[in-house]
Structure formats: structure tokens, C-alpha cells
Amino acid sequence: MKGEKKDEPVISCSGLHKSYFQGSVEVPVLAGVDLEIAPGERVAIIGASGSGKSTLLHLLGGLDVATAGDVRILGQDIRKQSEAERGATRNRSLGFVYQFHHLLPEFSALENVAMPLLIRRMPKEEAFEAAGRILDQVGLSHRLSHNPGELSGGERQRAALARALVTRPACVLADEPTGNLDRHNAEAVFELMLQLNQEMKTSFIIVTHDSGIAARANRILKLVDGVLQPAS
Q: Are 202 and 168 in contact, with CB atoms under 8 Å apart?
């Protein structure tokens, strides 16, 4: 039926395993993760340091390849895609926000935010227009020409959030997005994420150690012994 697709998960994985090798010794990190993220849903993932939370995000985002299991982004099995196809899927469907902003220091805020659109070969004028709009939404319309070094920590993270959202992705993968900020700026950035989640209907998967942020998600999942389970 035509209407069924709208409820399709934006990201799903099943039987996801990931191991690394230290010499000849296999070190399992994920041991069979199953997950579905609905459109517009906010999911927090918590767990001890070293439990594999960042590894899981990398697999869900197609930045790394699982040892076993599958990952689907808007129904497409990314394990069956070439590296170039995975890159196109990431650019089209996903946004990424990290603890450290990863803005390019030699470019302005406007150029940094426009970058994902320029990579997909959108005309420069259109890309800058879209970047300007989203920077205005995150309260940085007065900082368009400033380089990252001229922005405060909170402003840099808001610019990074704008870059993640400029493509209007189906889902944003956020790895400790407020972990490098003081409490005031962390709260401001997270409020902005909530606002944009509601306005744009973008899903968020947020890895966090901040219990206050996790509590405001629709679901909290905990990674224990390589498996996701509902947090108690």
C-alpha cells in the first residue's frame, strides 16, 4: 500500500556484530545489536566508557563496516553498497555531530555549513543560501563570515549542528554532542536540537553520558556486554 512507507524506520540494524583484532586475539565489541529508529524519534544511547557506543554510531552511519549483521538506511542495505554509494547515502540521508566540532579552520561558518551541499555539487549560490538559512535558525546569522577560531565553544557546536542539518537529513547521529561544553552552553545546544527535531521531524540518535539529556529522549537504551537493552 502507498501509505505504508512513511512508517518505515529511518535506520535499522539486526544482528549487528563488530570485533577488532589485537594481533591474533579477537576483541568483540558488539554482540548482536537490533535497533529500529522511527521518523522523528529521539533515542539516547548510554553505557560505560569503552562499551562500544561510538562504534555502534559509526556502523549505523556507514563510517565502518560490521563483522556481521546488516544496517539499513531508509530501507537500503548499506552493506551491499560500494564505498562511493555509502558516501552518497550518508550525504543524502544522515547528519553527524561530534563532541568536538570538526569545523574546517580555514573556512568561514557559512562555508563550513555549506560544505555537505557543495560536496553533492549543488550550485554555490544555492548552497550558501541554504547554509545561511540554517545558521539563522541556530542563532548565528551575525557570524556567517567568522572562522571557527573566532567563534565561542557554544557557537562552534551550533555551527556543527547547522552543518549536520543543512541537508535536511532523515537522521542525525550525535556522539556526545554537548560533552565539550559547559552546562549553560550544553543546555542551549540541546534545546536547539529539540527544537529542530520538532520543526524538521529529523530523528536523533544521541550517545551521551549526560543523564539530563538522556531523560529528554523518547527512548533510552543502554549498551551492556555488546547488546542494546532498555535502560532501567
A: yes
- Residues 72-115: pLDDT tens digits? 998 888 888 888 888 888 888 888 888 777 888 899 999 999 99
Q: Going by C-beta distance under 8 Å and a sequence separation of 6 or more, which residues neighbour residue 43? A: 37, 203, 204, 205, 206, 217, 218, 219, 220, 221
C-beta separation of 105 from 121 below 8 A: no
H or E stretch covering 156: helix 153-165
Query: How far from chain centre, in Å, is Cα 200?
Result: 15
DSSP per-residue string spanning 100-138: S----TTS-HHHHHHHHHHHTT--HHHHHHHHHHHHHHT
Mean pLDDT for the chain overall: 85
Interval 155-214: pLDDT, tens: 888 898 888 888 888 899 998 877 777 777 778 778 878 887 888 888 999 998 888 888
**Bridge-partner residues for 222, per DSSP?**
46, 229
Q: How many CB atoms lie within 10 A of CB 38?
A: 16
Q: Which residues face 21 on adjacent strands?
A: 26
CA-CA distance, 43 to 75, in Å (whole number)?
A: 19
Q: In terms of Cα–Cα distance, which of 82, 29, 43, 73 is closest to 169?
A: 73
